[in-house]
């Protein structure tokens, strides 16, 4: 339309679209800045050498002791990267042994990353406590993935286990770094089921 109500309607739609686009750009920039802040806080809280921009989380799930599966979900800069998610059917015949299952999943994940010369995550979150953390760290070491920081996140008290510390870290329930870790862990749990 060249004139009249229809032309004004198109101009209004164009203006609204431009405003919406500008608003989204500003919101995305703010979200990225907040994500960076949370990642820096997480680095500080966990005493990590690098900012954990790429986080992988592993979980083991089973149906009444059978059909054991593992999952690995990836978050980049605090956002899920669904194309990087992996589900693992446990090949071992040990049944409901979370430690051996975790060892298998972590070793398969990192072996493939190394063989295909793909980037290695900065932080690996293990759904579980010291036992699962130990099994995962050993699996990564077995395949040569030695530069990955590992933590265990236990569900009941939301305690964070580090290999180098005898006592777990307890972040405030309202802290942004803990909420990020919970979101990552919950996504791994959801994907495994």
* Biggest beta sheet attributes: 7 strands, mixed
Question: Could you tell me how far the N terminus lies from the C terminus, measured between alpha carbons in angstroms?
Answer: 54 Å
Rg, alpha carbons: 21 Å
Outline = elongated
Task: Report low-confidence residues grouped into runs of 5 or more.
Answer: none
- What is the helix fraction of residues, given as a range? 40-55%
Structural commentary:
- With 193 residues, this protein is an alpha/beta fold.
- 47% of the residues lie in helices and 22% in strands.
- It has helices at 5-46, 98-115, 130-143, 176-192; strands at 54-63, 66-76, 79-80, 86-89, 123-127, 149-154, 159-162.
- Helix 1 crosses helix 4 (176-192) and helix 2 (98-115) runs parallel beside helix 3.
- The longest helix has 42 residues, at 5-46.
Descriptive terms for the model:
193 residues; 22% strand; alpha/beta; 4 helices
List the SSEs and their pairings.
Blueprint: H1 5-46, E1 54-63, E2 66-76, E3 79-80, E4 86-89, H2 98-115, E5 123-127, H3 130-143, E6 149-154, E7 159-162, H4 176-192
Parallel strand pairs: 1-5, 5-6
Antiparallel strand pairs: 1-2, 2-3, 2-4, 6-7
Helix pairs in contact: 1-4, 2-3
Short structural summary:
By secondary structure, this protein is of the alpha/beta class.
């Amino acid at each position: 339309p060249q004139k009249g109500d229809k032309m004004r309607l198109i101009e209004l739609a164009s203006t609204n679209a431009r405003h919406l686009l500008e608003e989204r750009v500003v919101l995305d920039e703010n979200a990225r800045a907040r994500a960076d802040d949370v990642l820096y806080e997480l680095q500080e809280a966990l005493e990590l050498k690098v900012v954990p921009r790429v986080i992988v989380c592993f979980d083991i799930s089973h149906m009444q002791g059978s059909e054991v599966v593992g999952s690995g979900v990836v978050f980049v800069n605090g956002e899920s990267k669904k194309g990087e998610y992996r589900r693992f059917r446990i090949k071992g015949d040990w049944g409901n042994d979370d430690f051996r299952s975790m060892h298998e999943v972590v070793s398969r994940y990192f072996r493939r990353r190394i063989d295909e010369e793909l980037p290695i995550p900065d932080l690996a979150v293990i759904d579980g406590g010291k036992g699962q953390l130990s099994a995962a760290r050993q699996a990564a070491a077995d395949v040569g993935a030695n530069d990955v920081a590992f933590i265990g996140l236990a569900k009941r008290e939301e305690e964070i286990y580090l290999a180098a510390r005898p006592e777990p870290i307890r972040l405030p329930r309202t802290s942004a770094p803990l909420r990020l870790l919970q979101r990552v862990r919950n996504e791994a749990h959801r994907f495994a089921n």
